[in-house]
Amino acid sequence: xxxxxxxxxxxxxxxxxxxxxxxxxxxxxxxxxxxxxxxxxxxxxxxxxxxxxxxxxxxxxxxx
Length: 64
Ligand code: SF4
What we know:
CATH class: Alpha Beta
Largest sheet: 2 strands, antiparallel
CATH topology: Alpha-Beta Plaits
Strand order of the largest sheet: 1-4
CATH architecture: 2-Layer Sandwich
Bound molecules: iron/sulfur cluster
Order of helices and strands: EHEEHE
Distance between the termini: 5 Å
Structural class: alpha+beta
Radius of gyration: 10 Å
C-alpha cells in the first residue's frame, strides 16, 4: 500500500503524524505533513486508513 498527502489541502493539524508516530507521516519544513515512506509498513496500514478517515481536509490519498 502506498499513500501520499495533498499539501494543497493539508492544514498541518498533525493528527496523521501523531497517529503513525512519525513512522509514515511527518512534517516538512513548511509545517505540513508528508509521507516519508514509499511503501506503508504492513503493521501501519490500518492506522493509515484511520488517519485518512480522520483527516479534517481529506488530504490523504491511499493507493493500493
Ligand atoms: Fe494534514 Fe490531514 Fe495530516 Fe492534519 S491529518 S496534518 S490536515 S494530512
